[in-house]
Amino acid sequence: MTATTPPTPTHTHTPTNTNTHTEPPTTPTLRDFYENPDVPVASGTPRTLRQARILAAALPTPGATVLDIGCGDGTAAATAAPLLRGHRLIGVDWSQDALRRASTHLTHVVRGELTDNGLPFATGAADAILFSEVIEHLVDPDSALDELRRVLAPGGHLMLSTPNLAAWYNRALLLTGTQPVFSEVSLRAIHGRPGTEVVGHLRLYTARALREFLTASGFDVVRITGAPFHGVPRPLRPLDRLVCSAAPTAASILLAHARRRAGD
User: Fold this and answer.
1) Domain extents in the chain
2) Is the pLDDT of residue 159 over 90?
3) Third-level CATH fold of 39-164+205-260
4) What dihedral do alpha carbons 138, 142, 148, 152 form, nearest 10°?
């Protein structure tokens, strides 16, 4: 675009009393943050596969409608798709950049939001929802779960994953006065804990808190299991995998399988 030069004033008088107002610079919002292509929008493969296996076992009859809400760049849904053959998998996100990338992996992608009936689906239209590493980014998780419950059919499955505030290494870090991994105090940089990648986490859950929250939101929790975290240093990964199996409440990532309570 070529800028135009404003016309030169035809007088030279300068008012002594002006009401000029300079607009303050616009502060970036969370939407701006998540529309930034440099912000990671993919879940880890191990937890995606664990979720998909659980969901595949829960959906033995083909033809289910499965929504991957907060699908990001679509790689998680693409990873899960071979285990969900025969079902219709739809990626949903509000980030236009994420949807552009997801469209290279998924046949069906749509834009939607998690508040005020913002998901473009009829009530009870979905048989299952994948909700991977989304809830920790939300300002209003209560309204989000209300909307998920609305689009799920009674008895429909919710597969939710989120980082664990009470992960085994976070318990040790807190004892030393160190900020827990996964927590963030700024959208500009990491402070007070290991790591350098800012991903916009606003809320963190323990297994107990997640179970209580889902129950209060109209879901029956079937099971909460654990999954490893790709960011754990390589020498500690065998221990991370062991904790996931032996003590899920101390696992890096929490995987919750819940069902929409009938009648709510």
Assistant:
1) 39-164+205-260
2) yes
3) Rossmann fold (3.40.50)
4) 160
